[in-house]
Design brief:
This protein starts with a strand and ends with a helix. A six-stranded mixed β-sheet has the order 8-9-10-5-11-12, with helices on both faces. Strands 4-3-6-7 form a four-stranded antiparallel β-sheet, covered by helices on one side. The longest helix is centred in the C-terminal third of the chain and has 18 residues. It contains seven helices and twelve strands. By secondary structure, the chain is of the alpha/beta class.
């Protein structure tokens, strides 16, 4: 059972150690017959084990390209990406990815079967898969919808299921590309609180992309502000606020101003 104290889980779940991520002078160029486009230029930052780092910046600043390199979907053109000191990003199967698109769930599988998918690919037996899937569905408050299909869920519920699926096989790193961008404001606020609970319980290393400055301040331990054309790091701002965070507090508003000034 999970015990909440002041809205947060008192004890983290038993998980593998989170991983340290390092980007050192990373470049990425999209190549085509017509021309080469430098998308990411000389990007360097770290994510400490169990740290929640948000990336913000204008469209075209390379946020998703950086996430795709961390996920192993793209190979960086120059520089180094180290995970726990391993060059080349190490074992890419230890990364869970959550996208913005609601269609990332398999429509022919129930919610529980979707969450079990990664465990199934690893050869975990059916009882263990079932128990682990239900554990994470309870965490995201979807256990009563375990046998529903994705089309029977709201957008926010589908994103909860996607997060549960990414966490169920216990990745060390969680990569999230604007997962709440398509949600209404009230649902988005609820999802941010839920994600705070999940992160507090699992202590994964998280890299989270958002265009929403308030969301970055609410969720992040640090915020990496990127500038565009090509994408590069403008500044990194540490967020020294307790969770849950009050978006109306003067300190919260001040952090928003700092990030907005950096973006300007």
């Amino acid at each position: 059972m999970y015990r909440f104290v002041n809205g947060l889980l008192e004890h983290p779940l038993e998980t593998d150690l989170a991983e340290r991520i390092e980007l050192k002078n990373v470049f990425f160029t999209y190549r085509s017959k017509e021309r080469d486009v430098l998308a990411v230029q000389d990007v360097s930052f770290t994510v400490d084990p169990g740290e929640f780092v948000c990336l913000v910046g204008p469209s075209g600043c390379g946020k998703t390209t950086i996430l795709n390199m961390l996920a192993g979907f793209l190979q960086h053109t120059a520089g180094e990406i180290l995970v726990n000191g391993a060059a080349g990003g190490g074992n890419k199967s230890d990364r869970g990815v959550v996208f913005q698109d609601f269609s990332q769930l398999f429509p022919w599988r129930t919610v529980r079967a979707n969450v079990e998918f990664g465990l199934e690919m690893r050869g975990v037996d059916s009882k263990q898969r079932h128990d682990k899937a239900m554990e994470f569905l309870r965490m995201v408050k979807l256990d009563t919808f375990a046998e529903s299909f994705p089309h029977q869920l709201s957008g926010g519920m589908q994103q909860r299921a996607a997060i549960a699926r990414s966490l169920a096989y216990n990745p060390a790193v969680l990569l999230m590309d604007e997962p709440f961008a398509a949600l209404d404001a009230m649902t988005r606020d609820e999802m941010q609180k839920m994600l705070t609970d999940v992160w507090s319980a699992t202590k994964k290393s998280v890299v989270y992309i958002t265009h929403n400055v308030s969301e970055a301040v609410y969720l992040g331990d640090r915020v990496v502000v990127l500038k565009a054309h090509p994408g590069s790091v403008k500044t990194i701002i540490g967020i020294d606020l307790p969770r849950y965070r009050d978006p109306l507090s003067p300190e919260f508003v001040d952090y928003q101003k700092q990030i907005l000034q950096a973006l300007a």
